[in-house]
Amino acid sequence: MQKFADEALIEVSSGNGGNGCVAFRREKYVPRGGPSGGDGGRGGDVIFTIRRNLRTLAHLRYQHSFKAENGLDGEGWGRNGRDGEDVLIPLPPGTVLKDPGTDEVIRDFGPAEGNFVFLKGGNGGWGNVHFKSSINQAPRKALPGKSGLFRRLKAELQIMADVGLVGFPNAGKSSLLDKFTNARPKIAPYPFTTKIPNLGVLTFGGGDSWEGQDIIIADIPGLIEGASRGAGLGHRFLKHISRTAALIFLVDLSETNYLEAFDILYRELEDFSPALTAKKRIICGSKLDLDGTAGALEELTAKYPSEKIFGISVFSGQGLKELAGEIGAMITDNDKTIPPAENDFEEERE
After folding, report:
1. Sheet holding 7-13, edge to edge
2. Interaxial angle between packed helices 173-180 and 320-330, expressed in degrees from 0 to 180 and rounded to the nearest 10
3. 37-46, pLDDT tens digit by residue?
4. In contact, 249 and 265? CB cutoff 8 Å
5. Residue 192 CB: number of other CB atoms within 10 A?
6. What is the helix (H) or strand (E) element at residue 46, kind and residue range?
7. pTM as predicted
């Protein structure tokens, strides 16, 4: 079973502040030394930290409650309580924090690494030394620490990639990702082989104008008609191509519906989010090595004269160089996201 999770419900709590102390200085030759109660320590914060080596929310399956440490109480002799330890919650780039009740976006983490203090810990209470005055030389008053904060959150992952592969099951998306990149997705001659998103890095070189670019490609599970309404496997992962700069629509030229495939896929994306259909795109006819597919590619090109259409065969390598060149030319520096630390999701044996 693949260890992949793109949603998680968590509970987070910052620490309570420590209580102030009521104490008086008592030592030989100082019978009336005055108040000496220390302040309570501040409670720990809840901090989210973005880690590039994470590509899934699977670690939140095993721990969904996070609480920062409480501050310690103040002590005599003017000793303040220790501040509570912060709790750090690692998240992968592209994570969105939402209110589970309203679905309101609280924080959308982009590709940059860094820390985000979400809940501050409670302040510590004052010790009685703060309440000494000319008319009250021996105050017996101290303040309690402030309580920490509590929130329930929904974490959603939208993977960071430059290009997304879209197509029906068994259209050849995983094979193309395997050929183009160092990802090694599961490939088999039957539908729904891909059950989770896969990431790979397409690296250019050899004197091209885009030499040195690393382009991240995401392969999501195959779509079927009605995916935007929850049919099939791919609907859960449509959100993972929402951050991409461009899409590649893979059309299996050996299937009978090759002339309608793009229209169906386009409608599913439009129903899910119109923003997806506004992205740069390429239509790619696959399995060009099979009999009859060359004529199918000509018909597909004639039907969509305004679209960029390429024919490829992963088996023979036909058209792959041209397609890679078009991808490199299409993705600019402004479209780039961070390179992944891992090319594939970790597997969990059960």
Report:
1. 65-67, 7-13, 150-157, 95-98, 105-108
2. 80
3. 999 999 999 9
4. yes
5. 14
6. strand 46-50
7. 0.77
